[in-house]
Amino acid sequence: MAAVCQVTGAVPGFGHNISHSHRRTKRRFDPNIQKKTYFVPSLGRKVTLTLSAKGIKVIDARGIESVVADLQKRGVKI
């Protein structure tokens, strides 16, 4: 599963692990991605979204109807 949030667009960040001796090795900071299923009354069915923890909070604040409408405007297949 790709580490990308469908609502916020959060993607992995990249950086370095730095050891005690200051040797640097590449590392990846992944967003907290989870699959969530919501019932959307306007569509009359359940929708499964790949969301970050912040994306879940956005849906809680704005509502699933508003978020799904924005996703459809952007052309995301739901």
TrEMBL record:
Keyword Ribonucleoprotein: yes
One Gene Ontology MF term: structural constituent of ribosome
One biological process term in Gene Ontology: translation
Keywords for this protein: Ribonucleoprotein, Ribosomal protein
Cellular component terms (Gene Ontology): ribonucleoprotein complex; ribosome
One Pfam family this sequence matches: Ribosomal_L28
InterPro entries, alphabetized: Ribosomal_bL28, Ribosomal_bL28/bL31-like_sf, Ribosomal_bL28_bact-type, Ribosomal_bL28_sf
Annotated signal sequence range: none
Family under the similarity heading: Belongs to the bacterial ribosomal protein bL28 family.
Name of this protein: Large ribosomal subunit protein bL28
Organism whose genome encodes this protein: Leucobacter luti
